[in-house]
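Lecture notes, unit on protein representations.

Consider one protein chain, 313 amino acids long.
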Amino acid sequence: MAADELLERIGAGGLIDPPAPLVAMLSGGRDSVCMLDLAVRARGPAAVAALHVDYGLREEAAEDERFCAGLCDSLGVELAVERPVRPEGAGNLQAWARDTRYAAAARLALARGATIVTGHTADDQVETILYRLASSPSRRALLGMRPHDGKLARPLLGTTREEVTEYCERHGLRWREDRSNADPAFARNRIRHGLLPELSRVHPAAAANVLRTAELLRDEAEVLDALVDAELDGAGTAPRGRIELERLAALSPALRRLVVQRLADRAAGRPVPGAARHAEEVAGLRRTGVARLDLGGGVRAVAERGVLRAERD
């Protein structure tokens, strides 16, 4: 794929437009290498910095870092390297690694007033949706990753892994292969190498249909979000960001769940998985005095004199 063609495609979304500089997350894999090269072509090397995180968990980690340093040197891009140490009892390895690299990117972006860009592709989107669908009983599971999420942008979400490979090969870009991407011990790898090929045998457009469904649902989610906004930020007599218990109980079950989920997410400053399933219990809290209910994720619902809010524990 020609550079101009892909630049036009990702530029149409406005995700890498000036004036904010860019912080490109760089693992050394083909997707992140492609994204870094495109960022430099679009904005120039002075507006781009790269972040590489060396977890020290693989034998090839030092070679990956040297590769990223050489690539950034050839592109004239500043490289920041993080070498975190996993604490005892950190839980799921992949979750810790993900949280660590995004936290490092956020710090770097904050210091520069930058937008973070990742190399997530359309293939990553399909895998994410299928994984969340299997592991999380919520509407959010089907929405996939957003092209733009606060200071985070994913310009390649509309580009397939095959197109990224073609781009890198055409422009002489080398990349590093992570052998752990073939390890069946990880659920995402089983989806990539097992489930997706089987789905393509069921229907050759299976992956495209998943992406199109997610796109439609994201459009419909905007309508639902507007309904929730109306309940929390204008309807009724409760202060903004709150709702009367009587009004909550009178809503349709679906809208009631969405309102409770929004309250929990706002209180936590992040998604609180599973908060919506407590909607019926929340609506049944007593209307007098003060009542509390744990919503999970370190958040609780608080009903005070019949008005509901959510707060961190």
